[in-house]
Amino acid sequence: MTVSTTTTKAIYNGDGSTTAFPTTFEFFDAADIEVIERVIATGAETVKTLSTDYTVSGGNGATGTVTAVTAPASTVQWAIRRRTPLTQQIDYVENDDFPAETHEQGLDRGVMIAQERQEELDRALKFPVSDATGLSPELPNSVDRKSLFLAFDAAGDPIASAGPVGEIPVTAFMQTLLDDTDAAAGRTTLGARAVEDAKGADIASAATTDIWTPTGQLVHITGTTTITSFGTAPQAGILREVIFDGVLTLTHSANLDLPGAANITTAVGDRAIVRADTTTVAIVTHYERADGTPLAGGVVAATQVEQEAGTDTTVFTSPGRQHFHESAAKFWVSFSGTTLNASYNVTSITDGGTGLKTVNIATDFSSADFAVLITAHSSTDAARTTHTKTITADTVLFVTTTAADALTNATAYFVSGFGDL
Hints:
Blueprint: E1 9-13, E2 20-27, E3 33-39, E4 45-47, E5 54-58, E6 62-68, E7 76-82, H1 100-122, H2 142-145, E8 149-152, E9 158-161, H3 172-178, H4 183-190, E10 203-204, E11 218-222, E12 239-244, E13 249-250, E14 256-257, E15 264-265, E16 271-276, E17 282-288, E18 300-301, H5 304-309, E19 315-316, E20 331-336, E21 339-344, E22 346-351, E23 356-361, E24 371-377, E25 385-391, E26 395-401, E27 412-418
Parallel strand pairs: 10-11, 11-12, 14-17, 18-19
Antiparallel strand pairs: 1-7, 2-6, 3-4, 3-7, 5-6, 8-9, 12-16, 13-15, 16-17, 20-21, 20-27, 22-23, 23-26, 24-27, 25-26
């Protein structure tokens, strides 16, 4: 035979179903084939075992097939390569006929071994052909190179190096960061500011009260001097939370932007959120009175009367009063029998017998003059109609009847009421 190709390995991606993988190169014995499984995501490699993980057919100087016992998953690759034993088994007997076929196999094995060594050399680090012949490829011994980097000296010979900044292959900008001696210097290089979640030192009020210099995002301002500016911020966008410990005036100005463009007289315990719009202009984005009252001209919550009227557009609806609006249900309930499935402002259901149910309301209506919506659901067609029988300020008694006007029970009921509490 002849060795007609220089190929010594083949790589296949698994798909979870394919088990047969052709060898595109000649080999002699099944033991000459090595299979390595590589996890694509991590690069981790495992040498597979002949007969346990795969079988080999063909060979004896020709190509063949590697057959997996279990199809490789789509997350792995199989690298199949030839590894001819580095032995010579041919023994010539003196005066025998010349064994041409055996001799040729020996030549073929020699070429295969040379090809396999070349494939490994092709994956090795090498000096360029044009490099000086005096370079030494020998690495420092294990004691000298442990915990160090592979580097090269001025002549290009390999050395073990601790890797100072000047010898690490990084960008020029990254070098300016790596040579910073502390976190503060690093933040300066990156144009970042320190994390200031801690409380800063108290600041005495002054016409220009510098709230930016103290370290700490939360600061207290003491004293009663009128403030017209919060000073110069180190950069736009930073924030401070301010608590006022005295009564003073915040003056709206070009450098101090206050809510409503109006001056604020502080009270002890008032709180403000201040954001630097520019380094010289501070915006008070939020101001909260210690007693909870709004700033003059601020939007306030609607009263019960305003909710019931439903006409004022200068107040907002609070969660605790939204149910007073005429469009809101004052009670609602979903129940089966006397069991409440879901409800609002309902205490219980009273069963008055077949077809009679009473909804007991927690917070009374102002009178019995309110609207009720009732829906009855039945798994049969027995329940036909529902209508109220008696309504009081805190109860709704209704009946359910069939088409023949006979009392009947429904499977589930849905009741809601609208009116004035």
